[in-house]
């Protein structure tokens, strides 16, 4: 932390980067940090590789879209919520250029320590918790918007303070953020209780097709390109599909497969004892023990399901 603060104080121009397909923790941690750095007299900018998904536009925040034609100049680059350089996607070249001035702030246990300074806390529920601590050192208080962003980051990654990554410390941070008086109900309504009508219909279809293993411990759902087209839903807006599989009583591992062009995005969740981060690592993915992801390429949905199912069965062997 001391080193991070010293580097920030010495820098003038700071670029903030986060992972591909940014989720609320990635976006909100970046925006809160950017806002705090600006009010601390720095010239800071968040650079993303693509527009924010429609379903996350309520978050707000300013950002630039990466362009390969542009020359990016900075004294310091800070990556947030990203465990691996490759997950920066198009912005990886910026991180590579500034590899000696690269701060890696993250909470993934399989973080590759790619920064010149690595502030990685695997016990933090969200990157937003670490950014909260950092901003506290930089300035006396938060703006209402910074507080809302950080609360959103933490509420998202803890599933509304329900997942096992929630600690008493998480609740204390959330409580002190709530003192700033933003509309926390609106945040949670957006995060957990709002879907577009089309997505609701698509979810109903996915629900009908959920598959459960013979012992009832593994459940999966699949979302093909064709289904998304039929319901006019974009992959980046079709989140939380894996929760459909997870909610079934007795399920230890749930996974979803989502087709996106040549790729299949796999989301894995576990409940009590299975380590899905370990499963994801086997296929070049990553994440945490209870939530992880993989991107598979050049494979059919059917083969992908079989592949992941076999890995899940192996992980459960002799357990539970
Ligand atoms: P998701 O299922 O997309 O919500 O992601 C769950 C967790 O796994 C998050 O912590 C992600 O950062 C991580 N994750 C998702 N996809 C990948 C991937 N392709 N490679 C590495 N980590 C991933
Ligand atoms: Mn994230
Ligand atoms: Mn996160």
Description:
With 320 residues, the chain is α/β, with parallel strands linked by helices. The protein is 38% helix and 19% strand. It contains 12 helices and 12 strands. It has helices spanning 2-10, 24-39, 92-97, 127-138, 144-157, 168-178, 184-192, 197-208, 225-230, 242-246, 276-282, 301-316; strands at residues 13-18, 43-48, 64-65, 76-80, 102-106, 117-120, 211-212, 218-223, 253-260, 263-270, 286-287, 291-297. Strands 3-2-1-4-5-6 form a 6-stranded parallel beta sheet. α2 (24-39) runs antiparallel to α5 and α4 (127-138) packs antiparallel against α5 (144-157). The longest helix is centred in the N-terminal third of the chain and has 16 residues, at 24-39. The termini are far apart. It binds adenosine monophosphate and manganese (II) ion (2 copies). The site of one manganese (II) ion has 6 residues, from loops.
